[in-house]
């Protein structure tokens, strides 16, 4: 499986604040030789909000994905596999 198809799933739990959040990212090709970074976030167990950001190249989309992963990890999100 190519890296581009890999879905990154992060979660953040703070039981004392009743905070149970997820953040999911993946990169996928578009139909016009462009690439989408698809993000979904929300409360664990609920449907999330979805956003797509478009990039000219796969490399730019993967770079943006990595920046978001690092930013979320700084806020306490952990990879769930």
UniProtKB/TrEMBL annotation:
Q: What is this protein called?
A: Polymerase
Lineage summary: Bacteria, Pseudomonadati, Pseudomonadota, Gammaproteobacteria, Methylococcales
Family annotation (SMART domains): WGR (SM00773)
Per the UniProt record, the source organism is Candidatus Methylobacter favarea
- PROSITE patterns cross-referenced by the UniProt entry: WGR
Q: Which CDD domains match?
A: WGR_MMR_like (cd07996)
Domain WGR, by residue range, is 1-81
Q: Which Pfam families match?
A: WGR
